[in-house]
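ingest -> validate -> predict -> emit
validate: passed (alphabet ok, no gaps, 334 aa)
predict: started
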Amino acid sequence: MIQTDLLIIGAGPVGLFTVFEAGLLKMRCHLIDALPMAGGQLTEIYPKKPIYDIPGYPSVLAGDLIDKLLEQITPFNPGFTLGERAESLEKQDDDSFILTTNKGTQIKAPVIAIAGGLGCFEPRKPPLENLESFEDKGVEYIIRDPEFYRDKRVVIAGGGDSALDWSIFLTDVAKEVSLIHRRNDFRGALDSVEKVFHLAQTGKLNLLTDAQIVGLRGNGALDAVQIESKSKGTFFQETDHFIPLFGLSPKLGPMADWNLQIDKNAIEVNTFDYSTNIPGIFAIGDINVYPGKLKLILCGFHEATLMCQSAFKIVFPDRKISFKYTTVNGVESF
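emit:
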């Protein structure tokens, strides 16, 4: 059985940064993730997607951010159990927990930090009759490598950050990029919205709002999408790829049976330290919910920092916590 001070469920960016904050407080960490490698969605779904809201980085690719986080936590030597899903959790007489994975691995810790992002997830698919017949034949739900679309015609549908960011990015890669959104307003960052409208005004992006994709056409492979527009009516637009980016449908999976307080597939927490209703279990990052919650990586970093302060008191009840600035002491001194 593996024993550690802090068991982190989820090896995405927030889970990885938790190792750094816990390491500064001399807590040993072990991470578990159902994916076969560290990085969560940033590694598995969009490693080449640029991220614009990480402090100190005007722009950083998702995969590069994970590489930097892994480098940052190297001095603390965390353990990893990857490719295994957190299955069951049992509280012990000494108030510690034993977590068992779907492959039988057992990990014991006094503190659990759930940093599982969206939990188990799958892409939200548009209700198109022949959609599945074109999957991997011109229809993709995830952009893993933008070079795959080099000099191709691409139609993206959606109004959130992913749709906006990828539309912007692919204008320098693809032969032609179209963004279709069923409304006039977007849900993404204002800066990204402004960039999309600027690209449309300069002719680098085909933008069509108050419109939606209602059909797909092709013989074995996609060759056109059918668009229904309030301004242009219904018509076919030739394309090589259709990428609906409507977000992910989250599911908590086995964690839903751990007696945690749940609100719409998210775990309710106390914003003092992001503790759950079960003492010793915390939830940080996109998997938690509270009034004013913003699902941003940098907010998850903040939540991890505060959570570790309370975790320390559980792991070392007889020690007094001494807050230190890494700019003064340096990581090597901890």
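The longest strand covers residues 211-218.
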